[in-house]
Amino acid sequence: MRTKLEQLFDRERAALLALVAREGGGLLRFESVDDVVQGIAMRALSSDFEYVDDVRAAAWLRVVARRHIVDRLDYWRALRRGSGRVLRLTWTDSSRATDALPADRNRGPATFAEHRELVELATKALNSLPERDRHLVLWSSEGIDLREQAERIGIEYGACQRAAHRARERFRKAFELLVTSQRRE
Fold it and tell me: What is the dihedral of CA 160, 163, 168, 169, to 10 degrees?
């Protein structure tokens, strides 16, 4: 049996899709409208909302939607802040460096546009990793010592070395896959 909140969500789905399309802005470069609405639904259904009537519930659902959009935008902005350093990890193996490095000295709109696209792809690749791998890649890009990384996640130094190496490899492969798929489009 479906709850009143689930029924309300079904009725309000079209309005939520329109709200996300209208207010999603930069978020929609990273996530589809449907994915954002699904996140709103999960957030709403997991809350302790007490259903009174449709009008109040619909207003509350719009508040949840706006909070979710802001939280997702904050998440992507936080990832992008350090993504230039993370992006450099994709070129650490010189045999793979077939394109210009993001830190290239060339300037101009085309270079900046390409860098911006690569940063977006690196952010997507980073987001595709499990949480621990994502932390290990970010910490490596920030220059945090492996011993400190091991302490942060509560594992031995040797295990952290192996885990960090595997995380960077997973990140590189995800990034390369995204770059290849984008160039085919």
Answer: 150
Structure tokens at 59: 């207003």
Q: Which of 80, 110, 140 delimits the end of a domain?
A: 80
Give the total number of structural domains in the chain: 2
Using one digit for the tens of pLDDT, what is the confidence trace for 97-133? 334 344 445 554 456 667 777 888 888 888 888 989 9
Q: Which of 51, 80, 109 is the last residue of a domain?
A: 80
Q: Are residues 74 and 87 in the same domain?
A: no
Tokens of 103: 């830190």
- Domain of residue 91, residue span: 83-184
Q: Are residues 25 and 104 in the same domain?
A: no
pTM of this structure? 0.49
Whole-angstrom Cα Rg for the chain: 20
